Structure formats: C-alpha cells, structure tokens
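Renewal narrative, Specific Aim 1. Our central claim is that a sequence can be written position by position from structural information alone. The example that follows is taken directly from our test logs and has not been curated for this report. It begins with the structure tokens describing the chain, in the order in which they were read.
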C-alpha cells in the first residue's frame, strides 16, 4: 500500500470516528430515558464504530485487489452497512466497477458514489 492509500484509510477512519462520536442521548427514541441507557449506548456506539471501520477496511481491501482501480484515490466511509465512496477515478467506466466491487463485500447494504472522473495530467 502506498502512502496516499494509507493516508486515505487514516483520514476515513478519523472522519468515521468523528461522525460516530455523537452523544448517546441524541439517538434516544420513544420511551427510552437518556440517563438509564447512556452506559449501554456508549458500549453499543463503540461497537458500531468498530464495525463501521472494519467494513470500510474490507471494502477498501476489495478495491485494492483490482489492479485497474487506483484505490489510493478513493476513500470509503461505512455507517450501518451503508457505504459512501469519495474520490476520483481515471475513467468513467471505473465508477461502475468500483460500485460493483463494493456491493460484493459482505455486510454492505447500500453504496452511494460520490466519485468523479479526473484524468491524469498530460492526457
């Protein structure tokens, strides 16, 4: 893995952790009391962040196996099985390939693509 790919993984993990660090009380619904559910929710939130990071890594690993895809230019954010792909590819046809690869990863429920086509300089 090159430095750029490693930095994308680190950045993606940091963003996912930041998004998932919302206080437990915000997500309380119905008759749940925030005070009574705060401790179990914290454990559950931690487990969810761990699961989201693991799924992001699985999707990124699947993309990295495809030689025609520059995986270092793509970041993966997972949340409850919903995967968002950000970054760029060199050809429009690669967008569908990347989406298809992401959909094959166990645990992925949906894929949102925010990928763009960016040709290398000089082409």
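The sequence written for that structure reads:
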């Amino acid at each position: 893995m090159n430095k750029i790919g490693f930095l994308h993984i680190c950045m993606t993990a940091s963003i996912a952790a930041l998004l998932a660090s919302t206080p437990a009380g915000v997500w309380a619904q119905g008759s749940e009391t925030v005070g009574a559910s705060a401790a179990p929710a914290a454990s559950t939130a931690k487990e969810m962040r761990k699961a989201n990071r693991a799924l992001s890594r699985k999707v990124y690993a699947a993309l990295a196996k495809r030689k025609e895809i520059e995986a270092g230019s793509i970041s993966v954010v997972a949340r409850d099985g919903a995967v968002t792909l950000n970054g760029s590819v060199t050809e429009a046809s690669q967008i569908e390939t990347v989406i298809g690869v992401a959909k094959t990863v166990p645990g992925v429920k949906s894929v949102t693509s925010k990928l763009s086509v960016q040709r290398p300089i000089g082409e």
